[in-house]
Design brief:
Blueprint: H1 2-10, E1 24-28, E2 41-48, E3 51-56, E4 60-64, H2 65-68, E5 77-80, E6 84-93, E7 102-103, E8 109-110, H3 114-122, E9 131-141, H4 142-150, E10 154-158, H5 161-166, H6 172-179
Length: about 200
């Protein structure tokens, strides 16, 4: 019965990706066997020139920010954002004054001037607790992402500022499913049947 409920919510047929704009999220559907995207939540930060770029929000890497950028002097988790652009650090935050950041339209911003961030944090004018840092990104061609959505691999949704900050990384996927009335979020601790 549970599987039938999930299938009811999974039917989608999108012919254009106009709705996949920056600030939206992609939520991986249950039973997807891809190890990279299994139970992932991806925030889209750019969609232009037939390319879509995003950051996986809910996977923590094995190293800390301080291991990679000791100049920050801030021992925060470093999240794994994806397999592309792994030679740099990205950030998502709520500080609209950071130069060069991309507004995502929901109180969140992507990137910005790292010298400014460092200087403002050292002076106490900016709190790094409002920032989450990521290594790597995800990039699709529009056609490939459209195919994945129509194959039933993603739900599209949006994330609010409180959701971004209030949900722990470990529970973001399940909490988002529950809020969207997808029952599988209630059984986060269950093993994925597709992997057995």
């Amino acid at each position: 019965i549970l599987i039938l409920i999930i299938m009811k919510y999974s039917k989608v047929n999108i012919t254009k990706l106009e709705s996949i704009s920056k600030g939206k999220i992609l939520v991986a559907k249950p039973f997807w066997q891809n190890e990279l995207f299994k139970r992932s939540v991806v925030l889209i930060f750019r969609h232009e020139n037939q390319k879509v770029r995003g950051i996986i929000l809910n996977k923590v890497s094995s190293i800390s920010l301080n291991d990679v950028v000791p100049d920050f002097g801030y021992n925060a988790p470093l999240f794994f954002g994806g397999l592309n652009a792994v030679d740099g650090i990205s950030c998502i935050h709520s500080s609209e004054d950071v130069p060069g950041s991309i507004e995502l339209g929901n109180g969140l911003f992507f990137g910005g001037d790292y010298e400014y961030i460092t200087e403002m944090s050292e002076s106490g004018m900016l709190s790094l607790e409002d920032f989450r840092f990521y290594v790597g990104q995800i990039e699709w061609n529009e056609e490939n992402l459209l195919e994945e959505i129509n194959e039933g691999k993603w739900w599209t949704s949006k994330i609010s500022l409180p959701e971004f900050y209030s949900n722990s990384c470990d529970h973001l996927w399940s909490e988002k499913l529950i809020r969207e009335n997808h029952m599988y979020g209630l059984f986060e601790e269950w093993p994925d049947p597709s992997l057995s």
